[in-house]
Design a protein that fits this description.
Layout lengths: L1 H25 L5 H6 L5 H11 L5 H13 L13 H36 L4 H15 L2 H15 L24 H7 L3 H38 L2 H8 L4 H38 L5 H10 L3 H29 L1 H6 L1
């Protein structure tokens, strides 16, 4: 019931995204017909391309045609590559998903323990380190962090591979099962490819993790400070419970809901930040695909990218609502 209710509220959001994306892509500067006809094309050739693409029709007619294609799960064809947009997005999605999931795991593994440690010892060196890390993570743009990591670890120290995509030039892609190179290489028993894929993932994942761990560490610290100062925590300590049990069973469980909320927000931020990170590291994901299409004024891939991001965001919010009910049964009862 909760799932159906959340999906029903998501329908207007998806409809708004479809309308806004369609109108904004038509407002982009430049004429795609002129771009794809070439600089030496005649006006007649440009008009023929514009007619073939349907750009000579009115906006309502183009929008109705777009809706009809969407009803058949057809996101159009990329003018740049000549391939269906949906097929290219699905092909590139595992690369972006693998990068974002690993970055999220790194971020949670660092931010949550750091926030807990800072809350347990306010004013200590750990607390000051938490503030410095969160300030740096918020202040540094992702593209600058990525370029800095490449300069330090690849150019200066030579310990990281060249930022040339998911694998270096000496490795070949594993057999496709999930599209995640780490998983597929393990399934194939190819540990050399696994190590090569992991090496290529470390710097871009670290770039995104630095960007996302700042809000996670900050909200974890604030939520834990509030929980540790509560009456039930004082009662638990007065009852003789161990400090480990008080912190990780009682305090953390009551502080985890705002952390989950922030986790969902952080993942939504990553959907946008991955565009810059993928361009810096030549990562063949959906972000770099959208940027290349935007530069070429290729409408269909841009519309497909934004629509896919909106669907992923709606799905993410649905998952967060379900996790809420699992962590705190009171949320289920109120819903």
């Amino acid at each position: 019931m909760i799932v159906l209710r959340r999906l029903a509220t998501a329908v207007p959001v998806i409809a708004g995204v479809i309308i806004a994306t369609f109108l904004l892509t038509r407002a982009l500067p430049g004429d795609p017909a002129v771009y794809f006809a070439g600089p030496a094309a005649t006006m007649q050739a440009i008009e023929e391309i514009r007619h073939r693409l349907g750009f000579d029709r009115s906006l309502p007619a183009q929008f109705l045609d777009y809706l009809e294609r969407l009803s058949h799960c057809d996101l159009g064809t990329s003018l740049t590559t000549g391939q269906p947009v949906l097929a290219e997005l699905l092909t590139r999605l595992p690369a972006s998903a693998e990068l974002m999931l690993l970055a999220l795991v790194l971020s949670v593994a660092i931010a949550v323990p750091l926030g807990i440690a800072a809350a347990m010892r306010p004013g200590s060196l750990v607390d000051h380190a938490c503030r410095i890390v969160t300030t740096a993570g918020v202040s540094l743009p992702t593209f600058f962090t990525g370029l800095l990591l490449v300069y330090v670890f690849y150019y200066l120290f030579g310990v990281a591979p060249a930022p040339l995509g998911r694998l270096d030039v000496f490795s070949s892609a594993p057999p496709q099962h999930s599209g995640f190179y780490l998983i597929d290489s393990l399934l194939a028993g190819d540990f050399e490819t696994f190590c090569a894929a992991l090496a290529q993932l470390i710097l871009p994942a670290a770039t995104m993790a630095i960007f996302t761990l700042a809000p996670l560490a900050r909200i974890t610290r604030a939520a834990m400070l509030g929980a540790l100062g509560s009456e039930f925590i004082r009662t638990a300590r007065a009852s003789g419970l161990s400090g480990h049990r008080v912190v990780f069973v009682y305090a953390l469980r009551n502080a985890v809901l705002p952390v989950i909320t922030t986790l969902g927000m952080v993942f939504s931020f990553m959907l946008g930040a991955n565009v810059l990170v993928e361009k810096v590291f030549a990562w063949p994901g959906i972000g770099s695909y959208a940027v290349e299409a935007l530069i070429a004024s290729d409408y269909a891939p841009v519309q497909g990218f934004v629509l896919m991001m909106a669907l992923l965001y709606v799905l993410l919010n649905l998952v967060i609502d379900l996790v809420y009910g699992f962590v705190d049964p009171r949320v289920r009862l109120e819903a």
